[in-house]
Every structure is written in structure tokens, then in C-alpha cells.
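Entry 14. Two folds queued back to back today. First construct below, sequence then C-alpha cells.
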Amino acid sequence: METTLVREDAVVGENSLSCLEKYLLRKSWTVEDRCDQASGLVLTVSRSPEGRELTYPHPAYEYPDQNRGQILAETLDRLADIEGRPQTEIRLDMRSA
């Protein structure tokens, strides 16, 4: 019997880095993946039409020492600063597109 473990800090559903990336693409941001040579992590660098950058771990890669929930919250805080509105107003839910 195979057991599947779910990390306590896993972020699933409508609030994930993957949904954040889709949200940014809908807002005309460009998305580029890079390998950070110093850390060995695959990162995503998104750029707004105005040239503002938002960097976060690539949604498809999981690293054992990362807290994805915390990373998502911090990334949403940075996005809220860029967009000039409260984080609570940012809706990643794909159904509201």
C-alpha cells in the first residue's frame, strides 16, 4: 500500500503560486523561469507592463525547506504593494476571471 503525505504548509486550490502566475498572465505580465545559480532553485520572474518585477519559486517545483504558504503570502504582499491596493482585494480564484 502506498501512502501519500501532504505537507502541513502545502497550498492547494485557488490560492497557490500556480494561480498567482495565471492571475499575472491575465493582467498582461510576462513570465520567465530562471535557475538561480547561487541557490540552485528554479525561480519565476514576472514583469508588469510597467516594468515592475515579482520573483517567486517556480510553481511546479517543491523544495523541502520552503514553506509554500508563507512564500505565497509574502509574494501577495509584494504584489499588493506593486498594484497599490490591499492584499485582501487580490482574487486569484480562476472562476472570477
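Second construct, same run, same settings:
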Amino acid sequence: MKILFNTYPMAFHTPGGGEVQLMQYYRYLHKQQVGVTLFDVWSPPFRDHDLLHFFSCISGSLHFCGFVRRLGLPVLVSPNLWITEDRKDQYPVDEIRGMFVVANRVVCNSNAECDLLAAVFNIEREKFVTVYNGIDRRFLRPANPELFRSTFGIDGPFVLNVANIEPRKNQLNLIHALKAYPELPLVVIGHVRDRTYAEQCFAEGGDQLRYLGPLSHDSDELHSAYAACPVFALPSTLETPGLAALEAFACGAPVVVTGEGCAREYFGEGALYVDHDDIEGIRMAIMQGISRRRSLLATLVADANFTWDRCVEQLVEVYRGLLGEARVAPADSGFHAIESDGASIFAWSHASVQFECAPGVLKGRWRSEFGATMEIRIDEEVAYDEIWIPEVWESFRIVIPKSADGGFRCVALANIRLSDGSLVRERGVALRDVEFVDGACF
């Protein structure tokens, strides 16, 4: 299988989440022994590849994708797009629809995005398929918050926004929302995509705004920023769901994000949602977020559902289906979306779930739906067998011993069975109030 990647020519001038997605797909497909080539306009290698994966629907892209289809190659498009019926007039809808007609498959970041684009552009829903956005596993590891604070001289609480500065990211309304708290800095990390809009933000933000410019996506300082922030805010006009928000969520930070788009499909009740035009609502959500504790449950959900290696497995299956190759049925594993009962948040597993954890003790409370037994595996070896999980919340404590290399270990909650011995189908075990005690403390 050989895949050709391409996007519009200006994409990497000010790279954002779509460009991170493209490069992470490139990186992790290679790890899965899938051949991927970045398109070279000076030596176009069309006939050396099995299909084209094109990223974005920006004006002008239709001609390229149509040409590739006429060569006989299947075309797959990742639009990273959220267009509602009432905003169609703001986009080149005929050209975008042409992209979807030409494409053999349209890969979206959520089921909600698939449903919306199929309906708005009147394209058969079967052409659309979901491959969730992902995060690099390093964002699941602990980071030193003092690195970011000392590097940039930031003391005390602050609000973090990681996004290119442009109207869609809505930094201006975020600045206005924070005017009520002049002692609370807004720290912005990202490129300037709209110079006029950025100048407005700098003028309105004054000394309260700390603009640090872009940080490399793989930098320790960015990871440290997520670990240091009391709250992450991305009140954009829309998000699908916003890679920076997903990375902050994976780091356990309280997240405030726009309600327009597909963020709820990722974060469930594990984030606070705002209307991008409601300045008072943004202000209240930020204050609520600052008062929240960091969430280890969010980190476990991100680990089980949204790492790039898991997401790319889904993508490979899409490629196989398009090329007529045998497909592997996906395992019913991971977590459902986070829920809340008003007391705290919790998440139900599917029939099984696995995540990585450092040596130490994982503790919290759990329950099953009707009473169930399960086994706990550590690095595929059964560590706990026939554990009874009642229908009511009960405390649990899982000891994760050190491995020979002292590294992280894979923990799986598996073989979840009802009292009659049958495997659960939908909801396995629910976890809440999850905490970790470092094994170095023993």
C-alpha cells in the first residue's frame, strides 16, 4: 500500500491543527509499515502510488483532485470543515461540493462532522467516514510546569490559548472576557495568521496579554505550558475539535472550548462549552475552569481513545476498504464520552479498555451496570482475575509494579462478564475520582 499526501500550497506557511494532523498521519503510517510520500510538484509521482489523500477543501483544490481521479487513482479527502446551513454563503460551496463528489471517501474528525457535511452538501452519508483526531503519547506523560513558567517568567494563575491568531480562533472576545480580571494574564501561543486582527488583539489586550509566538509542536515548553495552565481556553467560532484543546485535555487541564463543532463528541462532560459571541459566558466558564482540579480521568480517556497510533489504525482500515483489501474488524475498546451526575465526572468503558500508566497505584471508584466480573492485565499478563464490580460505586486500588526498564506499562480492563457469564456488549466499567500515587513514593 502506497499513499500520496498533498494539501494546498500555502498550508505550512502558518501551520495549524490540520497541518499537525497531516504530519502525524505521515509519521504514524510509516510506523505501521505503510508507504507514504509527500507530494513533490517538481517530480509528481502519481503512478507510483495506490491512492491520493488530500487535506483541506480550500479553493483551487478541486482541479488537482479531479486530475488525480482522471488518472485512475482513488482520492480520499480530509476537509477539516464545519459548515452549517446558515453559513454556507461564507464558503465556496460549489467547489467544496465538487471535492466531495470527486472523492471516493471523505474522512472527517467526528460522526457529527460526517452527518453535517453530508446533509448540508446533499451527498450520500455512506461516502463519509470518521477517523478521530489524535494526540502524541508524550502529552499523556507528566511534564514539569516550572519549565514553562521559568522560561517565560510567568507566575501565578493564567489562561492559556494555543492557536493561530485569526478571527476564527476568537482571541478578541477572549480578551474582552478577561477584562473583568486584569490580574489574570492571557498567554497566547501560535502564529499570526491575520496581522490586522492580531494588532487589534495586542491593542485590546495590553499588558494583560502575553503573546509568546509559536512554539514547536514537539517542544518541552509547549508540553510544560499545558501542565502549568490552570485553565485552557479555545472559544473559537467553531472547532473539530481543536488539536490544542485535545492536547490540553490529555494533560488533565480544565478545558473551555466552543460549543460549535464536534468538541462534545471528544470531551463529553469533561469540558466547559461556550458560545463564541457570549463574552459573559466565556468569562464565567473560565472562572469555573480555574476552580476545577486537573483530571486524571481525562488523561485515561485520551489515552484509550485518541492517541495517534490508535487513530491511524482506523485510517489504515479506510485505505484498505478503498483499495478492496481485507479489513480487520475494530475491537470494541476504549471509553464512552465522559458524563457527569453533578457530583463529579465519570466515564464508562466499552467491552474492554486499555491505557498506559507509570508504576504506582491507580485508585478511585468504579461500578458496573448490573454487577460484573473482570480481569486486569498488565502488559498482557493477568494481574488480577475475577474481580467483582458491583452495581454501586465502590473504591478500587490497582497496584502497578515496576517493569524491568522502569517504564510505563499497559493496563487493560478486560473480559468483563455479567453474572450469567456473558460478555458485556455496551458499557463495561465506569471510573470516577481517579488518582495516581507514584511508585517512587513506596
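Quick look at the second one. The longest strand covers residues 409-418. The mean pLDDT is 95.
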